[in-house]
Design brief:
about 375 residues; Aminopeptidase; 13-stranded mixed sheet; 14 helices; single chain
């Protein structure tokens, strides 16, 4: 017999049991990242639906009831004009930051019990939606497998929001990675450029570099049009570090004694998750510093540590694909309403697929890096 229990805070969860389900699927579903979301937007109501079989956690999903998501890319009213009444509460399922939600199901469940578990999770979500959000729940940034699980409860088709990029690491050495990319010359050219800078790469806990990473992150954010201060970014990283239990590591580019660039990463399951980068652009030396910190150093660490994947997140598809990434879709689906017609979803998904392919280098092998049978079906 399966039973539902809803928790009002991450710290009320059995964090070990939750993370045993979450870590293999996504760092962004682990309790550390969920705790960070709680702390960053205290006006939202966080609830964590858990499903137990005897004394074993077999399924779970986080929910966030909010009038104003902190991240504009989770603001349903802006993303889907007309789909949400002005000023109404929105029930987000999966997360409010990170762009990678997953339904947590124990892999040991057989098909029948998985179906039962999904029915109970959806029923609980929709009960909460009826009470607080006009009967509608919004499932944002979920993967193909999650959409297949959810579609029996949906009255329309899902829509692609973004492409998610990751490099699956073949073999057991950096040389195997080079061979698989088909871009050995370019990557080795990047490596030589970095060597000529005289800089070194060090891997340090985020807690040791909070001040300098805040300063460098603010420089990168400002460069791309976001008005932030070094102190605000240092504070954000401090909250993130505390919430995630000091598990973040920084790949830092050191110019003699000073850090001039960094990539912040986390590990969960068999994957390294690149989270943020920051640079002092005036001190860079045209040495492929971004690719060194964001790609090559984490990949080398992955091979040394037995990790098998580097997650790179959304956007900048060309650069990521040229270094071995595949692109999979992240979907939006509303339950309890029909915010768009199926034909509109198909048209939207086809346009997104064409736009994504157009952003890639020419050639069939790069086009094949957009790997999703569901995207093809729903476009």
């Amino acid at each position: 017999m399966m039973r539902i229990h809803v928790y009002e805070s991450v710290d009320s969860l059995d964090t070990g049991a939750w993370d045993a389900l979450a870590s293999p699927k996504s760092f962004y579903m682990t309790t550390g990242w969920l705790r960070f979301q709680e702390k960053m937007n205290p006006e939202q109501r966080c609830r964590f639906i858990t499903l137990w079989e005897d004394d074993r956690l077999v399924a779970g999903v986080p929910t966030f009831l909010t009038p104003r998501p902190a991240n504009k890319h989770y603001n349903v009213a802006e993303m889907f004009p007309g789909a949400v009444p002005d000023g109404s509460q929105v029930l987000l399922v999966g997360g409010t930051r990170g762009y990678q939600s997953r339904i947590l199901l124990d892999d040991a469940l057989d098909a029948s019990r998985r179906g039962i578990a999904m029915g109970l999770l959806v029923e609980q979500v929709q009960t909460m939606a009826e009470q607080d959000a006009g009967g509608v729940s919004w499932w944002l940034y979920f993967a193909d497998a999650d959409m297949e699980l959810l579609r029996p409860w949906a009255s329309t088709l899902p829509r692609v929001l973004r492409g998610d990029c990751a490099i699956d690491l073949p073999g057991d050495s950096f040389d195997d990675y080079l061979e698989a990319t088909g871009r050995r010359r370019q990557i080795m050219r990047d490596r030589r450029r970095f060597d000529r800078t005289g800089c070194t790469v060090v891997r340090r806990p985020l807690s040791e570099l909070l001040s300098i990473t805040g300063d460098l992150l603010s420089k990168t954010q400002n460069r791309y049009g976001f008005e932030v201060t070094p102190q605000s970014m240092a504070n954000l990283l401090k909250v993130q570090n505390e919430a995630t239990g000091n598990t973040g590591f920084v790949y830092a580019c050191a110019d003699e004694e000073e850090v001039v660039g960094f990539c912040l990463a986390y590990e969960a399951g068999d994957t390294i998750y690149g989270r943020a980068v920051g640079f002092d652009y005036e001190r860079l030396r045209d040495g492929a510093e971004y690719f060194t910190l964001g790609y090559y150093a984490p990949i080398e660490h992955a091979y040394r540590s037995g990790l098998r994947r580097l997650h790179l997140g959304t956007s900048a598809y060309e650069a990521k694909v040229l270094r071995g990434a595949h692109i999979t879709p992240l979907w939006a689906l509303a339950l309890g309403t029909r915010p768009w017609e199926p034909e509109q979803a198909v048209e939207h998904n086809a346009a997104k697929l064409a736009e994504t392919r157009a952003s890639l280098p020419a050639g069939a092998r790069y086009e094949a890096r957009v790997s999703s049978g569901l995207w093809q079906t729903l476009a």
